[in-house]
Design brief:
Elements: H1 3-30, E1 35-38, H2 42-45, H3 66-74, E2 77-80, E3 112-115, H4 124-138, H5 145-150, H6 153-176, E4 181-185, H7 210-230, E5 234-236, H8 272-286
Parallel strand pairs: 1-2, 1-3, 3-4, 4-5
Helix pairs in contact: 3-8, 6-7
C-alpha cells in the first residue's frame, strides 16, 4: 500500500477508535447508578404489602415498596430505611432499638432522596380514621359526628406542630446532602371527595365526615408541599393522579386498602398497585427512567 494511503487509513482508524472510546465513556457516565436513599413512613415502606423486608422486621417494610420499584426501574443503588409508623422526629432519633435515625442513610454522595412523612405526627391519620370510623358506626353513617366533635383540631395540630417538624426534618436531610435531589411525596387519597353509600361497610365513616376527612388530608398535603418547597425539595403531587383510586374503589382500581375487608394485613395503606403508581408518578415528576 502506498504510504499516503496507509497514513489515511491509520488516521481514519485512530479517529474511529477515539470516537468509540468517547462514546463508551459517555455511555458509562450516563449509566452511572444514582445513589438513592429512601426515607419515610409506612406509605413509603408499603407496610402490609408482601414480601416483607426481613432486614428490619420492626419497620414492616416491603421489598415491593415504591423505593424498590423506582430503584429497579432506574438501576439506582438503593438504601431503604423507610419504616412503618415513622414520625418526623425519627429522621434524627432512633425509632426502635436497633433502628438508626433515618438521616444516617443520607451522605454527601447521595444523589436522590425520596420520602413521605408527616401523617403520623400528632397521630393525625390514626386518630382521624379511628375516631371518625367509631363515630360513623355509632351514628349509623348519618350526619357528621366526627366533624361536630373535633372541628378544626386536626388541622390546627397540623399547622402548629406538623409544619415546623416537617421543616426541621427536611432541613436535616438537606444538611447531610446539600446537592441531592429531594422528592417529598404527598399522600394519595384515602377517601373520595364525597360520600359513597356503598363504601360504608369498608370505610365506616358517616356521610358528612367523608368530605371532612378528605379536606383534612388535602390540608396535610398542602402543608407538606409548603415545607418541601421552602426547603428546596420537589413536591410530588397525587391530588389528580390518585383521584378515583381511593379506598372505596374496587380491587384492581384502588391504591389504598380500606379499613375493613381489605386485602392487606395493614389497612388504610397503599397496596402493591398504589406503590407502583407512586413510583411511576415520582419518576415522571423527576424525569427518571
Amino acid at each position: 500500500m502506498p504510504m499516503p494511503a496507509f497514513r489515511h487509513v491509520m488516521t481514519a482508524t485512530a479517529t474511529a477508535g477515539a470516537l468509540a472510546l468517547g462514546l463508551t465513556g459517555t455511555t458509562a457516565q450516563a449509566t452511572t447508578p444514582l445513589n438513592y436513599a429512601a426515607l419515610g413512613d409506612s406509605y413509603s415502606a408499603a407496610s402490609g404489602v408482601l414480601p416483607v423486608d426481613l432486614s428490619s422486621p420492626l419497620c414492616l417494610r416491603s421489598t415491593a415498596d415504591y423505593p424498590h420499584v423506582l430503584a429497579s426501574r432506574t438501576g439506582a443503588r438503593l438504601s431503604d430505611v423507610t419504616c412503618g409508623a415513622a414520625e418526623t422526629k425519627d429522621f434524627t432519633t432512633s425509632q426502635y432499638p436497633g433502628v438508626a435515625p433515618q438521616v444516617n442513610a443520607v451522605t454527601a454522595d447521595t444523589d436522590l432522596v425520596t420520602l413521605t412523612i408527616g401523617g403520623n405526627d400528632n397521630g393525625t391519620f390514626l386518630n382521624a380514621i379511628l375516631s371518625c370510623g367509631t363515630a360513623g358506626v355509632l351514628s349509623g353513617g348519618h350526619g357528621s359526628p366526627c366533624k361536630d366533635k373535633y372541628g378544626t383540631s386536626f388541622d390546627d395540630a397540623i399547622d402548629a406542630n406538623t409544619y415546623p417538624a416537617l421543616k426541621r426534618a427536611l432541613g436535616s436531610v438537606r444538611a447531610k446532602a446539600p446537592r441531592a435531589r429531594v422528592a417529598v411525596l404527598g399522600y394519595p387519597w384515602i377517601t373520595p371527595a364525597t360520600a359513597d353509600p356503598s363504601c360504608f361497610l369498608k370505610m365506616p365513616v358517616a356521610s358528612g365526615d367523608v368530605p371532612y376527612l378528605h379536606a383534612m388530608q388535602a390540608h396535610l398535603n398542602a402543608v407538606v408541599q409548603r415545607a418541601a418547597e421552602e426547603t428546596g425539595a420537589v413536591y410530588v403531587d397525587f391530588a389528580q393522579a390518585s383521584a378515583g383510586h381511593d379506598a372505596c374503589q374496587a380491587p384492581g382500581t384502588r391504591w389504598i386498602e380500606p379499613l375493613l375487608f381489605g386485602r392487606n394485613i395493614v389497612p388504610v395503606h397503599p397496596n402493591a398497585l398504589g406503590e407502583r403508581s407512586m413510583a411511576e408518578r415520582t419518576m415522571t415528576v423527576l424525569g427518571l427512567g
